[in-house]
Amino acid sequence: QVQLVESGGGLVQAGVSLRLSCAASGRTFSSYAMGWFRQAPGKEREFVARIKWSGGRTYYADSVKGRFTISEDSAKITVYLQMNSLNPGDPAVYYCSLNVDSMDYWGKGTLVTVSS
Q1: What percent of the chain has pLDDT over 90?
Q2: What is the CA radius of gyration of the chain?
């Protein structure tokens, strides 16, 4: 059973940085992608960033490009989201995702709150 466990959320002031982590476990992975989505209250879940393990190609939503950086530690099967210059548009529950063998798996989410 694939499991994704996020950590690193919390309450921060606007302009401050925060790093989220997501560790995957449960089976052997190869040729997969991991990413982050977020969902603010009253809004639909939206794409934030994605990284492909093979080659490490990254993708970002326009709203976070230049501020957020996704990276991975393949030995730990862990993906990170470094979030800089957090602003009032960023608070949400952030969900980790794993796409492998045409299946999508999700973590339970970690809450990020930004105070002005």
Answers
A1: 74
A2: 14
CA angle 8–10–84, rounded 5-degree value = 75
Instruction: Indicate the DSSP class of residue 41.
Output: T
Number of Cβ within 10 Å of residue 61's Cβ equals 15
| Residue-level pLDDT at 83 | 97
Tokens of 93: 């529950």
CA distances from 17 to 32, 52, 66, 67, 87 (A): 28, 24, 13, 9, 10
- Strand segments, DSSP code E, in the chain are 3-7, 10-13, 18-25, 33-39, 46-52, 58-60, 68-73, 78-83, 92-100, 103-106, 110-115
Beta bridge partners of 25: 3
Residue in the structure block whose two tokens are 């925060």 = 18
- Average pLDDT of span 11-28: 91
Is it the case that residue 64 has pLDDT exceeding 90?
A: yes
Q: How many Cβ atoms sit within 10 Å of the Cβ of residue 15?
A: 11
